[in-house]
């Protein structure tokens, strides 16, 4: 059985403008068409921060339903964190008794701690990469004072979490994947993150995009995402491993688990 997940990511504006609404719906239409061409029998359209934070979220959801012909659901911050956790762990090759999963999105960051037996700790912070970039990091590149202010805000929120101690940590989301490209390493410890910060702090977004092979829009928020990951790593005290799965994988596993065909196949296999 083949399923598809369309993830409508973060936009920290209080209102999604008409042009952006149309662009998002058209992009989702194309994804849904491609998913059906590839044989997906179930499509799940999930909306994260835009559905929770935008004043005209109902307009966005209606446009997505019409464009895709599929169910559309807004994830709560807790659901977003748990799905990212499940997707990251399902794709992880190694595991310890207690692990943290940090999912840095555009509008929020989720930190989830648990084990194979389940989630023990799940929190969401309003410090996504787009949100921090727009609030603090106006310059290209921004100045030292702007970076210091952004880092202070992030550190204050991360430290207030009081997350439990862990033996390992996974990082998921666009910022983590971009840093893997930039550094050439799947492990983001204190040294790797400090080096990455030096690079992105003094580079323009176009230079970052060219050096790491990133989308220009992603490059514009990479400094903010790196700051969030660096502060999270500092607080957890263990290196972050860039996860092979995340939110979309977690949602896909959920679709497969819930589907009648998947349940029937599982029963036959048993």
What is this structure's SSE topology?
Layout: E1 3-8, H1 18-37, E2 42-47, H2 49-53, H3 57-68, E3 72-74, H4 77-90, E4 99-104, E5 109-115, E6 118-125, H5 129-136, H6 144-159, E7 168-172, H7 174-183, E8 187-188, H8 190-201, H9 205-212, H10 216-236, E9 240-242, H11 247-258, H12 260-269
Parallel strand pairs: 1-2, 2-3, 4-7, 7-9
Antiparallel strand pairs: 4-5, 5-6, 8-9
What does this structure look like?
It is a single chain. With 270 residues, this protein is α/β, with parallel strands linked by helices. 55% of the residues lie in helices and 17% in strands. The protein has twelve helices and nine strands. Strands 6-5-4-7-9-8 form a six-stranded mixed beta sheet, sandwiched between helices. A three-stranded parallel beta sheet has the order 1-2-3, sandwiched between helices. Strand 1 (3-8), helix 1 and strand 2 (42-47) form a beta-alpha-beta unit. Helix 5 (129-136) crosses helix 6 (144-159), helix 5 crosses helix 10 and helix 6 packs across helix 10 (216-236). It is globular. The two termini are 17 Å apart. The relative contact order is 0.15.
């Amino acid at each position: 059985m083949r399923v598809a997940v369309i993830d409508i990511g973060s936009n920290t504006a209080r209102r999604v403008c008409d042009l952006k609404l149309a662009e998002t719906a058209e992009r989702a239409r194309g994804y849904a068409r491609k998913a059906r061409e590839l044989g997906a029998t179930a499509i799940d359209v999930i909306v994260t921060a835009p559905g929770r934070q935008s004043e005209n979220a109902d307009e966005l959801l209606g446009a997505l339903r019409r464009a895709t012909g599929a169910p559309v659901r807004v994830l709560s911050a807790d659901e977003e964190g748990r799905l990212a956790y499940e997707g990251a762990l399902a794709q992880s090759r190694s595991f310890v008794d207690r692990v943290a999963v940090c999912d840095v999105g555009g509008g929020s960051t989720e930190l989830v701690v648990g084990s194979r037996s389940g989630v023990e700790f799940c929190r969401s912070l309003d410090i996504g990469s787009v949100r921090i970039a727009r609030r603090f990091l106006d310059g290209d590149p921004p100045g030292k004072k702007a970076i210091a202010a952004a880092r202070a805000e992030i550190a204050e929120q991360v430290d207030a979490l009081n997350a439990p101690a862990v033996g390992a940590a996974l990082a998921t989301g666009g910022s983590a994947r971009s840093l893997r490209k930039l550094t050439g390493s799947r492990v983001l410890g204190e040294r790797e993150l400090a080096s990455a910060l030096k690079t992105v702090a003094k580079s323009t977004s176009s230079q970052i995009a060219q050096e790491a092979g990133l989308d220009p829009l992603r490059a514009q928020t990479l400094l903010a995402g790196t700051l969030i990951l660096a502060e999270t790593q500092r607080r957890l005290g263990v290196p972050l491993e860039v996860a092979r799965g995340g939110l979309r994988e977690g949602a896909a596993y959920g679709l497969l688990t819930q589907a009648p065909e998947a349940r029937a196949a599982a029963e036959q296999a048993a």
